[in-house]
Structure formats: C-alpha cells, structure tokens
Write a structure and sequence with these properties.
Elements lengths: L1 H15 L1 H19 L1 H49 L5 E4 L5 E4 L1 H7 L9 H4 L15 E7 L2 E11 L17 E9 L1 H12 L2 E8 L2 H6 L6 H17 L4 E6 L2 E7 L3 H6 L4 H6 L11 E7 L4 H17 L4 E6 L2 E6 L11 H15 L3 E5 L6 H16 L3 E5 L8 H8 L2 H4 L4 E2 L1 H7 L4 E6 L12 H4 L2 E6 L13 E4 L6 H11 L8 H14 L9 H12 L4 H7 L4 H12 L2 E3 L3 E6 L7 H12 L7 E8 L2 E8 L5 H7 L3 E2 L3 E7 L3 H17 L4
Parallel strand pairs: 9-10, 12-13, 12-15, 13-14, 15-16, 16-17, 19-20
Antiparallel strand pairs: 1-2, 1-5, 3-4, 4-5, 6-8, 6-9, 7-8, 10-11, 18-19, 20-21, 21-23, 22-23
Helix pairs in contact: 1-3, 2-3, 12-18, 13-18, 13-19, 18-19, 18-20, 19-20, 19-21, 22-23
Amino acid sequence: MNQNKKAIGQQIEKYLRVPFYLSLLFIAMTFIVFFVEKKAGVILAVATLIYILITGILYYQAGPKITNELVGYIFEQGQIQKHLLKELSVPYVLVDLEGRILWSNGEFLDLAGKESQGKKMIYQVFPELQKEILPTETEKQSVFVEYKAGNYRVEMKRIIVEELAGQEEDPMSIVDNSMVALYFYDETALVAYREECNNQRLVAGLIYIDNYEEVLESIEEVRRPLMVALVERKITKYMQNIDAIIKKFEKDKYIVVFQNKHVEKLQETKFSILDEVRSINVGNELAVTLSIGLGVGAANYMQAYEYARVAMDLALGRGGDQAVVKDGEQIYYYGGKTQLVEKSTRVKARVKAHALREIVLTKDRVLVMGHKRPDVDSLGSAIGIYRLAKSIGKQAHIVINESTTSVQPIMNSLLSNHSIYGDDLFVNNEEAINLVDANTMLVVVDVNKPVLTECEDLLKYVKTIVVLDHHRQTKDTIKNAVLSYIEPYASSASEMVTEILQYIVDKPKLKPVEADALYSGMMIDTDNFVSKTGVRTFEAAAYLRRSGADVTRVRKLFRQDMETYKLKAEAVRRAQMYMEEFAIAICPSDGVPNPTVLGAQVANELLDIKGVRASFVLTDLHDQIYISARSIDNLNVQVIMEKMGGGGHLNMAATQLSDCTIMVAMDQLKMLLYKMKEEGDI
C-alpha cells in the first residue's frame, strides 16, 4: 500500500513542477525583451523573479499537503469502490482467460456456497462456463446457466488491465493482462413466468374425419348412428382429457382450443386418437381415419387458426390419417400409416378441370414442367396438358433438359411426328425462360417441391402457376400457385390429367401416341396396375384405350435388353435381409443407361419375395446416392424417405443423398429403420 501511495505521489509531484519549467521560459523572454527595450526588460525581470518566488513557496510549503490530500482522496475513493463492489447485491466474480477464479464478492460466495470451496476454475462450479465461451473482445456477452434449480443470466465482459497490484495470484498467470468479469443475474422467477405464459398460450386445432361418407356407406343403415356416436365420443373424450374446448361445426369436422402445455403430451403419445378411432368396428369394411392440424407458437388467435388450417391442408395433402403440428416455421408429422382410400366422387376433378380451363383461356402460352430426370409419368402427364392447351388454341411447350432412357421411347415417338408437333415441342431451361412474358402460364406436373422441378428459376419468372401432383406434400411446396390440385390417393399424375381431360368442355381428342404416353405413365407408376390402383385408375385407363392407346405397343416400348435384365437379376440375387423384413440391395450403375429406373425395378422385384415388407435399393450415380423404396404391406416408406430428405407415397418413395458413399448411406438407412422400428413408427 505504501509503495502505491509513493508511486502516486511521485506522479502528482511531476505535475507540481510544471510552474518551474515555465520559469525558464519567462527568464528567456526577459533576456530577449531586455536587448530590445531595457526598461521593459527590467520590468519583466522583476515580474519573473516574483513569479519564481511565489512558485517556490507554493511548491515547498503547499505541495506536500496537496499531494497528501490527492493521494488520500484517490485511495479513499478506491476503498469505497472496492467496498461497494464487495457488497454488490449481484454475484460478481473475476476470472482469467483460462477460467481461473481471481476474486469474487460475498454474493457469489453465497450463491456458490460450499461448491466453490477448494475449486479454482469457474467451470468446476458452473459446467456451462467453459473457457471456450469466455469473451475474446471487450463487448458484453450473455449466457444462461442452471444452478441448484435456479436460472441465471451471466453477463461477461473482458477487462484489459496494465497492472494487477495486490493480487495474491501470480500476475503472469493472467494471459495478456486480461481478465473477465462475470455478473450473475437471477432470472429464476422470470423463466418460470415465461414458461407459465407459454403454457397458457392458445393452441387452435382442426379435426376432420377423412372418409366419413365412405365408411357410412360400407355399413348397414341401422348401425350408422352408432358409428357416428362412437367416433364422436372417442374424439370428445380424448380432447376432454387435455381440458380442450371442442365444437363440431360440420358433420365430419371439429374445431378445438386448448392450452399449449398439452401439446407435448399429444406428441409423446403420437396422437393416439388416430389409432383409437381406426380401431372402431361396428361391421364397417373401411377403418375410420382422422386428419388433425394444430397451430402452435402463434402471436395471436387469428394466426393460430391460420397455422391450424395450413397444418390441415398438409395433412390432407399427404393423404390423411395423420396429425400435423405447425409450430412457427417448424412442421411435425405423426401417423399416416394406412393405405389411402380412393374417393369415389369426381366432383373435385371436375371443379379443378373447369378452373384450369378458365386459367388457360386467359393466357397465350402454356409451359409444362415436370421434375428433374423425368420419368414416364412426368412426361405422360405433361403431354396431356400440352394437348389440352393446343386444343384451346394456345401455344404450348414442355420443359425438358435431359432425355433419360426411360422417356426416350415416348420422346422418339413424338419427335417422329414432326409435322404435328414441330421443332418447339420440347425446350430447355434457357429457352423456356426466354419465352416467359406477362401472358405465359406454367403447369407443374408430378412434383410439388420447387427444388425438384426441372427448372426452379422458372417458378420465379412466371406469375401464373398451376400444380398437378399425386405425391404427398411436405412443408417445402410451391407457394405461389394460383391452382393446386394434389391428390395422394391417385395412382399417378397421368391418371389425374386423364380425368381432367375428360371433364374439359369440348374435350380434346388425344392422338394415339399421346394416349400411349399417358397410359405408360399410369402403367409404370402402378407397376403394371398392381400397386395403388383403384376404380378410377381403371376408368382412366379405359378412356385412354378408347382414345387409341395400345397395350401391346406400350409394352414393347419398355422392354429391356438382355444385359440390363441380367444386371437386375444380379442385384436381386445379392440383396440382403435386414431385421427379417426389409430387403436392401445395391444396384450397379456402370454401363447402365438409366440406373435409377433399374433400381426402382429391382425394388419392385424384391417385393415378390415372401416375408419382405419393404425393399430399399441404393444406386450410386453422379456423386449422389439414390434410394428407391417400395412396400407391399401397410408400411409407410414415404415417412422413412422423408426423414432422409426425400418423399413419395405410402408404398412408393425415394430420396437422394449427397456427400456420402453408398456404404455410409446404407448404414444411415439401417440405423433409421432400427430406430423407427424400436419407436413403433413402422
């Protein structure tokens, strides 16, 4: 302490000597003035002498007193500040950049208690405060820690010091003469209030019975009231268990309101009401299925309802029998295990056909686009829309960049009719963008995810967009479509387009090659009318047969050569069984014209093996791993592929993986299958 006072006194004394240094300046000026004017020089000399005498008296008599008072004041203020800091009501601690505790006040000792005794590192007391998160700049940083059932906000600030005198620790241990000050603010009550506020937030929900009319038609008339009563009782009781308000606003639609704290419980049970309602049986041939949409995390009541409506649209767009929770930008899916039920009514198809025709009439040019690496269904449905536009007298073009071997036979048949279709039937991305103007519309077929479309940029340039697809929706869908017709129960996009063509006023007359293309799309997507076929599928096929489609001609278009067939047989031979019910195979890509199509065919072949519930075929192509998934049981491969970044249908799905090898992809698939099997998701 005495050394510190002496050092400060020496600093003050330097400032007190400044008048002496100025005296030298006055003496020099006196000599200069004396040589110019003697009388003025004498006067200035007397004044300078008086100044020196006064300065000397003040320095030797008052200087020590001033120095002592200043030094005393400084140390008095320092002691006051040190006392205030030590008595600060906020826990406060100083650590070096390694996390070593240098000093702490009483509140910190009370907070840490016995935990801090004998521990020199801050992270030994608070594990969250590792040295890696200590600030490297002088700006304040905040972290949140939990300690003894309390929640604390820790403000950290780096302090640069020149000298750390009086510290018991070695000053050299403080890296770069820096230390970090930490303030601990108790926010336990605030966190509790926030949690309570969040628990009390409103959650809006919609519950729809997917197949109300179909189920009632499948049972005797006298049992229908019982069926309705049982379903309503199940739903009402389930919602009353979470203190929800439930109101039936249509015969098969309900709206519910409950507190946010119950959402986690519903998610943990994976919305067991789906299984409970599905288990109702009073002689009905069809199981009752529900679609549930919940809006969570909204800023107000209207937004919560809007979230619920969006979630319900997603649930219905994915085929129903599932719950969708929209929490802000996050979307969670539950259920969706049963096979989709084909709607017997065609009212929706007729309404969409009429709406599509009205939109086409207002435009001069129609661009039709499918997905990347187009398949037969994508091309066939695009040709159907092309014929619709041309029959109304509009210009039409199909956007295709890569002609895969799967669509080459159809494209060759079309291009051979040069006199009918001309040179501009097919255009690439650049040509399509150049054709866009204010009177251009875009019809997207067989895909509803922007990233999978043939030309994603085209979606930004065209203002009028129509989407026709049969794949289940995800949150990443085309947002700005003026007309969206997505029906997961449909076997293919070609089936949907064929139905639309039948309901167009002055229905267009298909040419045989166009009927072949649409028929091919349906045939390939249904695996020769074995998978996902319904009454409407065969009715659409019958219409195409009447329009000139030839089954034998189509079959000959898609025959394989001997080498490709041998590769398919070899892939089947090398397939392995996983968990005694999943067949996994690797499809070769070297020397194969279209490996992904071959992989899909191998996946279909594997389903013919007894005991196989689902098949997965991996193909390595262009530094990407393609996985084709198929199932023959009520096993939802779409959910499996969705977790790997893909999608599709309940019995037919796929995905693409980047930055991994085929063996890594196989290990990821096996781990996912094992996890979903253990959790009861499949």
